[in-house]
Write a structure and sequence with these properties.
Layout: H1 12-19, H2 23-32, H3 38-49, H4 53-68
Length: 70
């Protein structure tokens, strides 16, 4: 039995389908940005990369949580 993906990662399949880039590429973009604050990164993804708010928020939240664990 497969577990249902919850949290920000639940958005990943639709992000890849809608924007045509793998999640790893989005995460690398976020990590390489000089911005560090959550909402600054969300705004940047929305403005410069035309992501919707929910998708941008999910990517940033997941990426920052991974970085915090390092």
């Amino acid at each position: 039995m497969t577990e249902t993906v919850k949290g920000p990662a639940a958005y990943f399949p639709s992000i890849e389908k809608k924007y045509g880039r793998p999640i790893a590429e989005w995460k690398e973009l976020i990590r390489s940005s000089p911005l560090t604050k959550h909402m600054d990164l969300v705004s940047w993804l929305k403005t410069d990369h035309a992501l919707g708010h929910g998708h941008a928020n999910a990517l940033v939240a997941h990426t920052l949580a991974e970085n915090a664990g390092k």
